[in-house]
């Protein structure tokens, strides 16, 4: 079965098919009615023709009868008959026959036998009267010499019948033709002596006529032409049959309608062609836009949103097209949004890690050179904890907009939460990249208004260069992370990735991993560094410092693992261990009669714990140690993180009798005014200021003024990092209260300290204090 | 003149009837084959003494020959008076007497002598329907039946005589003999082989030729 797949073809077939049906019906109706009409006309003509035929025959008979009557009424003729004057009779018959146009004239005896025939008289042949029957009153139809004749007779009376005269008119082609001219019908005369056709005369060529009686009007085909036929029997006697057949050519009647039919066919054809054209146009009008819409939908499906779906129509298709176009635009924008989301940070709208990775990949594939910089906001998690996510997000957005204006050429700025800002810069070498990064950090380090206060944010940066460091985007991202984590606040706030620093990173990871297990594995130990009272030259205080000996890494410096412990939160556990170790040593020393105040570092994390002061008190109480033997040192930056909580803690500790010190003063941003509100007794100046003290340097000015201001606030000043006699002398001269450093003593184990303590008086009193 | 002749004829008829009445006047009834009274039958009797006869007249009244059948002895002159207003042209082509009386009126026409025995058929050239018959005979006694089929023989001696008859339907055929018979029997009825007048009338509609093929014709077109 044929399946039509195309809408257009189906529409055309449907429309044209319908039209063909309608036209076929109309054509059939017209054809049928004209055919019927033609037949009816032919039938009417036939009936009229038959009547005319009869009338003609009657008329002819009447004329002939009159003429014949004239002859037989002639007294002379009657006399000739009565006297048996045959030559006279014969000549009179011939004369009259010629006069009225009869084919022959007959004279018959009273008993009906032919006595004289005008034809026979001429040709000498015998005349054979084979059959005769009355046709009309005075007319007979006779077969004479095998030919049909109309016979008009009259009796010769003198006054009784003495003979009979008959005028014979052959039913010949002449008569048929005349009949045809008058009736418009074809006429055939057929004479049969069953079963032999004796004579056939027809206006139709080669028509033999019907050999049997036909009562109805029938249609028949003669020589390929249609006729309606009616048969008029003229004589039926014994085996003789004479008929006249009238034939009305149906084709002729139909021919009248031929023009109508031709016009109808023409109209039908024209209508068919026009309607086909219209159908094709209509179908095209419908299916073309449909296939255009289908193409458009396919394009959209394949993700090509570039071309708008346009269809300048007011109908449903136009509506569908505009709907499709809306759909195209919305899918396009949604897809772009999705794409954007996939490659952009929702907060800042900047490129995210994926996008940066792609950009790096593209740049690497293009064989270009450039740098990747990671900008990290130090302590961002503390900011979130302190002020809430929303505020920090505001800050990040603000930073993003500021950075955006400060980018070098050929750069792309990205942001990845938890990582920081990423800057991809093409065609920039490492040195200039560091300079650029520095400029950006300087910009970002400006004090900003944040959470109602002006703060300076601390930023670190890591820089890698491709293709120098790697040709793999992921590797570059890993390396820049390492570089950033190598950066440190201060001079080294920008770090360039170095392969060996990568090792350090791995080491840090290991430290972070192993540190929580160090107390259990007894890898931790405590060393003590003496603090020298610069006024008395006595040592009454020591600082306890933690040492970690890793089984594989060896000794790990506190600078290395303490920040990591603070980051990971294991610092509290370390503080607790340290506290126990220090108090235990205090017990030992007090038992030995050694009176030393021991200071230990605590972390900002410790101060965030409200239970911390009680825990300290409990540990001290467990060893029956007075709180005044313990001093706790906290960095000024630690105090800044949770100022209220820290202050509460510090106040409690102070109330318990523990001595407190601010450690590493000068690295943070707290002012002395801030310190004034802290419940501390001691201020430790960071060793970075102390190590290279000399008159006239910035450090010297800072240290000198710090000492003076601290003293004004009633704080004792401790300087650490003293590595030379000069520094010691300078500090003593400037009124610094306590000194600490390698020049005085390295940090040493407890037993070694005890023996060192015995040498103190000789050393420092000698050195001219 | 005519009036006198007629008057004398009547007288003669009366005397003969008287003679017949006193002597031998007999009535004979003639019928056709269907038993109907048959007029215009001529009875001829031979062997008897001739009867008295009036001068014969063939009158024409209302375009008819009166009488239709007239019997005259051989050698008789017959008058043809015309009682109609119109003229007649009486003729005969019969062999015993061919004659022609052209367009005459009243008693203009001369009497015609019939001197040969036989049948003379009379016609009028103007009026074809007029037919009359004059039977010229040598028989001494004869009479014609009237419309009621009655034949009156006036002077018939007793005995058996040769009798013959004729009727127009026999045409030119001679009278047919009935053999010897005694005509004096009262109530004598003669049934003759003559077709009924009705069927004769009917046949007259058909021509001889039609009659010839009549039997064979089973179908006649109108």
From TrEMBL, chain A:
User: Which CDD domains does its entry note?
Assistant: EAL, HAMP
Q: Where is the GGDEF domain?
A: 371-499
Which residues does the UniProt record annotate as the domain HAMP?
284-336
* SMART domains to which the protein is assigned, alphabetical: EAL, GGDEF, HAMP
Q: Which residues form the EAL domain?
A: 508-761
InterPro entries on file: Cyclic-di-GMP_PDE-like, dCache_3, EAL_dom, EAL_sf, GGDEF_dom, HAMP_dom, Nucleotide_cyclase, Rev_trsase/Diguanyl_cyclase
Q: An example Gene Ontology cellular component term from the record?
A: membrane
Among PANTHER family, the record links this protein to:
CYCLIC DI-GMP PHOSPHODIESTERASE PDEF, OXYGEN SENSOR PROTEIN DOSP
Q: What is this protein called?
A: EAL domain-containing protein
Q: Which organism is it from?
A: marine sediment metagenome
TrEMBL record, chain B:
SUPFAM superfamilies (UniProt xref): Cupredoxins
State the InterPro entries in the record.
Cupredoxin, MauL
- Name the UniProt record assigns to this protein: Methylamine utilization protein
The species is: marine sediment metagenome
